[in-house]
């Protein structure tokens, strides 16, 4: 069975493909000839993941899954959340995003936060949702130069290092995206 992963990030695609048993062949947006920018206009992660998956199923006729991720900071009432990618303004820039976040947290005692990933799967006319959460804290300063996005300012619960100071393998085992993907893969492997 062919299944579209609504992404053009080949690293993400390969990572999920390697976790799946042989009966599912993952294909990217490019593989199905989709080169449009699908607008992510919803106010929630769930909404945006659904928009992407539904767009592919409705316009291209494929079973499909899509993901959306946000960083939710407790003392900022869940911000930047669904706006994580462009929190610091256009054009999107990880350092501008982190600088704004650190500034907005000056003087706040509660620095607890979580990354949350939602995956929406459209499979043979049915919709499924998978959630992965990684709880942690926003550091006072950036630490480490690995990873991407907010990794230098996020320290997961139970660890002494930021995401940006961890190996890719360690982060993947505990990360929001890793956990959501594991739930998706377990489900797909179980229905064969
Ligand atoms: P996306 O839905 O995967 O594109 O994620 C939206 C935004 O959330 C990204 O542009 C990043 O700013 C941030 N983000 C998502 N996942 C991570 C992560 O694992 N580490 C750090 N930042 C992330």
Q: In short, what is this structure?
A:
By secondary structure, this protein is α/β, with parallel strands linked by helices.
Low-confidence stretches: none
Largest sheet: 7 strands, mixed
How would you state the average pLDDT, rounded? Answer: 95
**Total helical elements:** 5
Look at the helices and sheets and give the structural class.
alpha/beta
Shape: globular
Sheet-strand content, in percent, reads 15-25%
Termini, distance in Å?
10 Å
Which ions, cofactors or small ligands are bound in this entry?
inosinic acid
Q: Please estimate the helix content.
A: 25-40%
Task: Give a written overview of the molecule.
Helix content is 31%, strand content 24%. Strand 5 (112-123) and strand 6 (126-138) form a beta hairpin. The longest helix has 16 residues, at 45-60. With 192 residues, the protein is α/β, with parallel strands linked by helices. The protein has helices at residues 10-19, 45-60, 94-104, 168-174, 176-190; strands at residues 2-5, 25-27, 64-73, 80-81, 112-123, 126-138, 154-156. Helix 4 (168-174) crosses helix 5 (176-190). Inosinic acid binds next to strand 3.
Draw up the topology in text.
Elements (H helix, E strand, L loop, with lengths): L1 E4 L4 H10 L5 E3 L17 H16 L3 E10 L6 E2 L12 H11 L7 E12 L2 E13 L15 E3 L11 H7 L1 H15 L2
Parallel strand pairs: 1-2, 1-3
Antiparallel strand pairs: 3-4, 3-5, 5-6, 6-7
The structure holds inosinic acid.
Features:
192 residues; seven-stranded mixed β-sheet; 5 helices; binds inosinic acid
């Amino acid at each position: 069975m062919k299944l579209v992963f609504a992404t053009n990030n080949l690293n993400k695609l390969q990572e999920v493909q390697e976790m799946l048993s042989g009966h599912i062949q993952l294909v990217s947006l490019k593989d199905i000839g989709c080169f449009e920018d699908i607008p992510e206009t919803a106010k929630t992660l769930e909404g945006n993941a659904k928009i992407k998956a539904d767009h592919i199923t409705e316009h291209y006729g494929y079973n499909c899954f899509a993901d959306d991720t946000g960083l939710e900071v407790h003392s900022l009432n869940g911000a930047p959340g669904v706006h994580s990618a462009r929190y610091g303004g256009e054009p999107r820039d990880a350092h501008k995003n982190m600088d704004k976040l650190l500034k907005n947290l000056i003087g706040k005692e509660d620095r607890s936060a979580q990354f949350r990933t939602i995956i929406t799967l459209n499979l043979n006319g049915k919709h499924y949702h998978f959630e992965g959460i990684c709880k942690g804290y926003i550091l006072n300063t950036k630490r480490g130069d690995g990873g991407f996005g907010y990794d230098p300012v996020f320290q997961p619960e139970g660890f002494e290092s930021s995401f940006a100071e961890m190996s890719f393998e360690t982060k993947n085992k505990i990360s929001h995206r890793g956990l959501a993907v594991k739930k998706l893969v377990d489900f797909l492997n179980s229905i064969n």
